[in-house]
């Protein structure tokens, strides 16, 4: 299961210029809960992929910074920089393909 990150964990991965994915959700969003299960399933097969989850309600400044317009959303970071964003989280294949890039 993918761990829920706090701002410190995110900041550390950004500072270390890590490659990782970040899943943003809100607790009351039904689509977010369904997509979270898909992210967790994909994580089980992608051993070398670092993935974190964050509740967007606690970091609204990141929504503005990265121009997040909706949840659920999955962000991909390369060398600590935002590389790609996906709102297409409707099935396991979409999630898996995005994460393994």
Q: How are the SSEs placed, and which strands pair?
A:
Blueprint: E1 3-4, H1 7-15, E2 20-25, H2 30-45, E3 51-55, H3 60-65, E4 73-78, E5 81-86, H4 92-99
Parallel strand pairs: 1-3, 2-3
Antiparallel strand pairs: 2-4, 4-5
Helix pairs in contact: 2-4
Describe the structure.
This protein has helices at 7-15, 30-45, 60-65, 92-99; strands at 3-4, 20-25, 51-55, 73-78, 81-86. A five-stranded mixed β-sheet has the order 1-3-2-4-5, sandwiched between helices. It is globular, with a radius of gyration of 12 Å. The model has no long low-confidence stretch (mean pLDDT 96). Helix 2 crosses helix 4 (92-99). Strand 2, helix 2 and strand 3 form a beta-alpha-beta unit. It is of the alpha/beta class.
H/E series: EHEHEHEEH
Question: Which structural class fits the helix and strand makeup?
Answer: alpha/beta
Rounded to the nearest angstrom, the radius of gyration is: 12 Å
Q: In order across it, which strands form the biggest sheet? A: 1-3-2-4-5
Distance between the termini: 20 Å
Features:
five-stranded mixed beta sheet, 4 helices, 101 residues, alpha/beta
Write a concise synopsis of the structure shown.
The chain has 101 residues and is an alpha/beta fold.
